[in-house]
Write a structure and sequence with these properties.
Layout lengths: L11 H6 L8 H9 L3 H7 L3 H16 L5 H25 L1
């Protein structure tokens, strides 16, 4: 594995308060993606598939000023936040 769990940053929220934050699972999800385990990546952190394009569009927007790029970034950001909140609530319920 490229990113072993022993090299991943620990969740300070989980260490200090004993429960996971809304970002818990992101590093492991990226690890699954790198290794081609797409379903496991989605199960670990569902917003991974909107956060990656969001990051790409943000980087591209620094170099190219496309007409609707800000609208795309805003939509991806809104969808990402909604997915993060909904998946966090579902994780807490289960």
């Amino acid at each position: 594995m490229l990113l072993q769990e022993e090299y991943m940053l620990p969740c300070l929220n989980k260490k200090l308060f004993g429960f996971e934050c809304m970002g818990c699972g992101l590093q492991r999800s990226l690890n699954f993606l790198i290794h081609g385990e797409f379903i496991a990546a989605f199960k670990m952190y569902p917003a991974i598939y909107t956060l990656i394009p969001l990051g790409i569009f943000i980087v591209v927007s620094f170099f190219y000023k496309a007409k609707n790029i800000n609208r795309i970034i805003n939509m991806l950001a809104i969808v990402s936040v909604l997915i993060i909140i909904i998946s966090f609530i579902i994780k807490k319920i289960n």
